[in-house]
Amino acid sequence: MKFVNQLDYPEVPYITRQEMEDEASREKGKKTTVATSACGLCSAIIVVDRLLVNTELSLEEAIRLSYASEANLRIGTDYTVFAPALAERFGLDLEMTDDPERLLFCLRTGGCAVAESAGDREGYIGVFTHNAHYVVVIAEQRDGRFAVLDPAIKEGKYDEEGRRDKVKVKGKFVICDLKTLMEDTEGADKRFYLFWRKEK
Questions:
Q1: Domain of 11?
Q2: Is 90 part of a structural domain of the chain?
Q3: pTM of the model
Q4: Residue 34 lies in a domain
Q5: How far apart are CA 15 and CA 4, in angstroms?
Q6: Is 40 inside any structural domain?
Q7: pLDDT at 176 over 90
Q8: What is the pLDDT of the chain when averaged over all its residues?
Q9: Sign of the Cα pseudo-torsion (36, 140, 48, 72, in order)
Q10: Distance, CA of 159 to CA of 171 (rounded, Å)
C-alpha cells in the first residue's frame, strides 16, 4: 500500500490562501509547501492507490488538480471542492457525510475515507492535529477499531498528553476507535469523505 508523508516534501511549493481577505495571508500562501499544507493531497494519493489497481496519482498531478479545481484558495485544501474533482478524475463514487454509520458502511463495502480532523478546541487536545488536518481511514479491524494513515506522522507525535491514551501506533498505522474519530472530527466542514470504486 502506497503511503506518502507530506513532511518529506518541505521544498515542494503548494500555493494556497489566495482568496484570503488580508494581504499577509495571501503572501504566506505563496510560500506554503507540501510539508506545511498538503495533507489532503497526500491523503488523495493514498485513496487512489487503495481503491484502484494499476492506477497512480502522483504528487505533481494532485497539486495540479487542486489548482485546477481551485481547492487551494483558502488554508490548505478545501475537500468540499477537491473531493468531487478527485472522484471525477478517477471515476470514483463519493459521499460527503457526518454520519458514522455511513463511514462504517463505506469501510465494510470496500471503500475508504478521508477524515477531517478539526484540531484543538476548548477543553480538547486534537488527536491527529492541533490545527486542521486530513487523514485516511483505511479499514475497520476485527476488534471494531480503525486503521488510519496519517500523512503527517512523525516520531513522538502520538506520545503527547491527550493523544497517547487514545491511539496505538503500529508501524505506519494509527489505530483508534470510533469515539476518538468522532471527537476529533467535531467542527469540521464535513467529518468524512467516503470513496468507493464505481460499480461496473
A1: 6-197
A2: yes
A3: 0.96
A4: yes
A5: 19
A6: yes
A7: yes
A8: 96
A9: negative
A10: 14
